[in-house]
Amino acid sequence: MKKLTVLTTLCLSAFLFWGCVKSKSCNPNPPSSEAPQILAYASANGMTVTAHSSGLYYQIINQGSGSTANANSKIFITYDGRLLNGTQFDHQDVPNVSGWALSGLIEGWRIGIPLIQKGGRIKLLVPSALAYGCEPYQSLPGSSVLFFDITLVDVQ
Predict the structure, then answer these.
(1) pLDDT for 89-147, tens place per residue?
(2) What is the distance of C-alpha 133 from the center of its chain?
(3) Cβ neighbours of residue 81 under 8 Å, at least 6 residues apart?
(4) N or C end: fewer C-beta atoms under 10 angstroms in the chain?
(5) pTM of this prediction?
(6) How many CA atoms lie within 13 A of 42 on its CB side?
(7) Domains, the chain, ranges and CATH?
């Protein structure tokens, strides 16, 4: 009986581990390969964007004042997230009560949000490699370039 329990536990553990292993079947697109798509979107939507060395493109709408977020910050934001075809995939009209650790968010946000201060607003065009990569994530197709309109309500 003890052997059966151990075998069952090992099989279940292996199954759960296998489900957590990321597929090696895709390679993230280099941000530079998505630049033409990003620039076309920016132009079509009247955005004047700045290129960051990471491949992120951004437009600061309002710099804000006061605190600037860093890797150790907890941020409180409102935002709208869209695919470049205009499909909204996420939004938040009221900041999360407990905030989010900036260090735990997608790389595009970790780079872009510190470019503004408390009360500031920024539009980000995030290459797929700085977002969720080449694997599908929730409702997002793999290799999705993402647009975010973010207001930094507070920084702690």
Answers:
(1) 999 999 999 999 999 999 999 999 999 999 999 999 999 999 999 999 999 999 999 99
(2) 10
(3) 88, 89, 90, 91, 146, 147, 148
(4) N
(5) 0.83
(6) 21
(7) 29-155 (3.10.50.40)
